[in-house]
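# step 3/5: fold
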Amino acid sequence: QYSYDLKPGFSGPDFSPEWCSPRCESYTSLYRKGLLLENLLKLPDKRSLGVCSGYAWAARRDLLLRHTLYDACIVGGGDGAMLAGFRGNFQEIIDYLEMNPRRTEHFLEWAEPVFAEVAGNLGYSPGTVYHLWHGEIKDRNYGPRRIELERHQFDPYEDIAIASNGCWRWNSGKPELHDYLRAYFASRFEDGRS
């Protein structure tokens, strides 16, 4: 229900700003309580409203075997994509992630059958999640990354493929896209700037 980002060096339940980010309530708990803002997934900084959409997921094994989790949001945003799939508010996340037609098609190929089965029937477990800090939010460049994927015309059908180890690998000759992503992840300063 609630989450805190734990910063490096955290050693106990100390919720002071130098150790934790402000508390966020989960999107799903607000949804179940009927307190969810309209078009929340489209907002650029949900945390400023005290709302987080990711962290942990649980589902019946048979559901996950049939549909898997949606993992083709290669620069992030997959938590919002999965929520949109589970709830059926597809256009919110398509707009927010600025999906081009191929990305939209790929997402809907996963989302429509998932929604047909889940139909917004989501729950949450009351409690607190402690999320390990991995860099400042300002260094994550959430807006520009969406624009860059569009600029490079990212196509999940052509540009990525599952490798023998089960992870995504590049599948296309788009060195500018590959270089951008390498630089993007290096620029996030996941361990902090100092």
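# step 4/5: annotate
The chain has one domain: 2-186.
# step 5/5: archive (pending)
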